[in-house]
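Hi P.,

Sorry for the delay on this. The queue was packed all week, but I finally got your sequence through. Input first:
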Amino acid sequence: MYYEPFYKRFPEIAKEETRRLLVFDDPDLPDDEYALLESYCSEPHCDCRRVFFNVFSKRRKQIVAVIAYGWESKRYYQKWLGDNNPDILSELKGPALNTASSQSELSSALLEKVKLVLKDKNYVKRLKRHYALFKKSVAMETLEESKNLPVVSKEKISRNDPCPCGSGKKYKKCCLQKDEEISLKNIFKGYNQMTAEFEGTLDERTAGEIAHDNIVLSELRRGSSIKEALDAAAEKYPEEALQYDDENIDDIRIHYNYLLNHEIIKNRMAQFSN
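Then the structure:
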């Protein structure tokens, strides 16, 4: 399982929304600024719902702790892992120091600080949004690459090799298309499972809310800013208008970018399926 930094895919969002701890006169930690750099799993079919915090010290200019955190229940991780070992489940859920990573003498104290930070429900919601954005990006990337994917097999099979089914035909003339379709179906299945909760919220919208959202998305596609898009939608559907200010505009922008990307991915999935 490979964890990739969030800022590599979303540098602007990471710049604005990475949590930083400013520590002064603390008995357990030296004065410093500690950035909680988020990393998420980049495996397309994995839905671990966890984040790794690589805690970066501004003064030392290095990672001084790696902390794992999963926001779901232990029951979820038991089902996801297929194991009910309490020690493993506790580490999966966390927050906990990642035993596979190098730690420093500050790690234990930083873990206690992170536990306090995670009591902020709005911050946990932000982590969930980041996770969803990250996994959607992975899904889209996987779909783009799927046209050129090799056949899913224990051994790499060339298009001109004899087909492993024993028909005597070349692989490209026999089972290649079927194997590629299976690979795509697995990708689609993983993405649909990952976004099922989000799809549920979309299905709950009223006709007016759908019409309002469609105006916002249409304006964003034309290059309008999120404020311009919201104003255009509010003009046509005032009863569905969203009230925005400097405090919530970034959350609204992320939501609609999320919705826009989801729409693009679903359309591409439909094209691949046809």
